[in-house]
Amino acid sequence: MHFFSFSFALLFCGLVLAQDDGSTAGTEGNIEVQSCFPDMCDLLKEFGAMTEKLKAMETRLKDSEIRLNISEKQILELRNKERTNVMFSAVVGTAGTLGPFDTDTTVIYKTVITNIGNAYNQYTGVFVAPVAGVYYFTIFSHAGGAHPATLYLFKNNEHIITTQDHQSDYDTADNGGNAVFLQLQQGDQVYVRLAENCHIWGYNQHTTFSGFLVSQM
């Protein structure tokens, strides 16, 4: 399109130069035509320049639209992060003691106190991370001295922390607790296991498992 415009302009300018052979003779009509062609050349040149400017403006507008879409996406992601609230707290909630068992056993904290985000499953005892981020978990236990009381906190199949109290003939009750920050990916599982030949008390909300999302990543 631009090549055609400039070629057309050059053609008219060439015609004007061809007609101008140095002769002073000519009709009034020829003089009018010769004076008209330079105006047409100027108009075509201006049209070509305006077309280039419009093309540059269109390119800038497209770039601005792309940047705007990226900014809107980033704002939406930030808003989604702000709306993601995850926190839970649960207790064993059984009558009497839990254990001892002859093998390590996953502790099911049946009584849920808080479960914002529904990431903790009260039927399996497993917390499943709904989003990637840094989480904080705590475990507390209460038990008698007749048996050891050992709890392990796991991330997937990895042992992370322990709370432990040894068997004691002179101590009627023992308490234990621990806490940890964990970086989790979406779908990672966190749960607590009671060590073999150990026990904990399940009544009166003594033994708890809690956690919450600190920062989404």
From TrEMBL:
Residues 81-217 form the C1q domain. InterPro entries: C1q_dom, Cerebellin_Synaptic_Org, Tumour_necrosis_fac-like_dom. This is Complement C1q-like protein 4. The gene is LOC115589589. Residues 1-18 form the signal peptide. It is found in: Secreted. PANTHER family: CEREBELLIN 13-RELATED, CEREBELLIN-RELATED. Keywords: Coiled coil, Secreted, Signal. Gene3D superfamilies: 2.60.120.40. Pfam families: C1q.
